[in-house]
Amino acid sequence: MNWTVSQRMTAGYGVVFILLLLVAGIGMYTLSSTSKTFEYSLSQQAIIMKNQPSPKGGVAFATIELLRYLNTQDRKHLKEWDRWLAWTREGIIEGRDTSPNAEGRKGWDEALRGVNQLEEVGKEMIAAVAAGRMAEAQKINAERFQPTHEQMFNTIDRVLVGDQERMAEILQATQAEVSRAFWAMLIVAGVALAFGVVTASLLTRSMNGSLREAISALASASSEIVAATTQQAAGTAEEATAVQQTTITVDEVKQTAQVAAQKARAVAEAAQKTAQVSQDGRRAVEESVKGSQEAKTRMEALAERILTLSEQAQAIGEIIAAVNDLAEQSNLLAVNAAIEAAKAGEAGKGFAVVAAEVKNLAEQSKQATARVRGNLNEIHRATQTAVMAAEQGVKVSESGETLARRAGESIRLLAESLTESAQAAQQILASAQQQVAGMDQMTLAMQNIKQASTQNMAATRQVEASAQNLNELAQRLTALVAISGNGHLIRSRQREPVRTSG
Amino acid sequence: MNKRARVTDWQEAHARLERARQAIESGGHLSPEEATRILRNRARELATPLEEAMPSTEMIELVVFTLAGERFGIELTHVLEVTSLRELIPVPCTPAFVLGMINYRGRILTVLDLRRLLNLPGEGLTEGSRVISVKAAGMTFGIVADTVAGTLSVPAHKVAPPPEALTGLRLALTRGITEELMTVLDLDALARTPEILVNDEVG
Question: Would the pTM of this model clear 0.80, i.e. be above it?
Answer without folding.
Answer: no
